[in-house]
Design brief:
The protein has 327 residues and is α/β, with parallel strands linked by helices. The chain folds into 2 domains: 230 residues, Rossmann fold; 75 residues, no CATH class. The chain contains 13 helices and 8 strands. It has a 6-stranded parallel β-sheet, with helices on one face. Helix 6 packs across helix 9. The protein starts with 11 loop residues before the first strand and ends in a 22-residue tail after the last helix.
């Protein structure tokens, strides 16, 4: 018999890398919901149900009735960002939410002031923020981030922490087994300050895992996509998850493309334009950064429509996904 999961008691710290449009919309939504001023629209944990059992024993339960989940009231937020603006200022600047949706929780948002980010401008050349740890080595980044996590736990009194990447897409870093094959090799690269093979996001992920925090990657970076990070996750018994939130154009593709395939409709290309990308849109305007998103998204239409099986319908021009600039 499987062991019963531990109850989700106490406060849960949510430390977000990047306090931009995505993070502030998420945080504001949680705070509005907690006050009864809004509904958690779009939240699968709050609305979705999963079938449990079969036949006469079949029933549909919310996630929290199947596995122990923290209540929205128990979430405590913190963030890192290259810009010093607090969560309220950032939410206003992002212009995703209306001001009337932000003002009711203004005081709580103003209290979230970002810590200095572990940042390398070579990985996001379009960002000009000065709220950073400065020109430090990759290993120093890991140590400073671990200290930030420990301090947050101590000062906030949370029982556990999850680290979530909601920052911009980094320059593409191909997986190289010489540097990413084992934890030992990765640590050696970090201590050697190998800026080419170790992205700042990898430092966040490694620091989180070492501090006993699950790590969720919300961008298409290769941050946790290699054996070294899997080894650390196994050793620390900490979950790693994510490969871009895919809540924009990719969500539309994955929902609409099966209809095209099922009806055997032809497709010459798929093109989209970023309308409200905020800082992420700015960063993705740099070809090296867009390359990361392009690599992760190229397989979406191909895996759904399978051009080699239907060359008349989805030939060589079906790769128009590369023009997806949604941020």
């Amino acid at each position: 018999m499987a062991a019963k999961a531990k109850e989700a008691n106490g406060k849960l710290g949510v430390m977000v890398v990047g306090l931009g449009a995505v993070a502030t919309t998420f945080i504001t939504g949680v705070m509005m919901t907690r006050k009864g001023l809004g509904k958690p629209v779009g939240s699968m944990t709050q609305y979705d149900k999963i079938r449990v059992g079969r036949g006469e024993n079949k029933k549909y339960l919310h996630y929290k009735d199947i596995v122990p989940l923290a209540n929205l009231d128990d979430l405590v937020f913190a963030a890192w960002d290259v810009y010093p603006a607090n969560a309220y200022e950032s939410a206003i600047n992002a212009e995703v939410l209306k001001e009337k949706d932000i003002e009711p929780v203004a005081d709580e948002l103003k209290a979230i002031k970002p810590m200095k980010a572990a940042f390398d401008k070579n990985y996001a050349k379009r960002l000009e923020g000065n709220n950073t740890m400065g020109d430090i080595t990759r290993w120093e980044m890991v140590e400073r981030l671990r200290e930030d996590i420990r301090n947050f736990k101590k000062e906030s009194g949370v029982d556990r922490v999850v680290v979530l990447w909601a920052a911009s897409t980094e320059v593409y870093v191909p997986v190289d087994m010489k540097y990413h094959g084992t934890e030992k090799a990765m640590v050696e690269a970090m201590k050697a300050d190998d800026k080419e093979h170790i992205a700042p996001s990898m430092c966040y992920a490694y620091a989180a895992l070492l501090e006993g925090c699950p790590f969720i990657m919300g961008a298409p970076n290769t941050t946790v996509d290699f054996p070294a990070m899997w080894e650390v996750a196994e050793r620390t018994k900490m979950p790693i998850a994510g490969k871009d939130f895919k809540t924009g154009q990719t969500l539309v593709k994955s929902g609409f493309a099966p209809i095209i395939g099922t009806r055997c409709l032809g497709l010459n290309g798929w093109f989209s334009t970023n309308i409200l990308g905020n800082r992420d849109g700015l960063v993705l305007d740099e070809p090296a950064n867009f390359r990361t998103k392009e690599v992760s998204k190229l397989s979406t239409l191909e895996s759904i429509l399978v051009p080699e099986d239907q060359p008349d319908l989805y030939g060589v021009n079906c790769g128009g996904e590369g023009n997806d600039h949604n941020g």
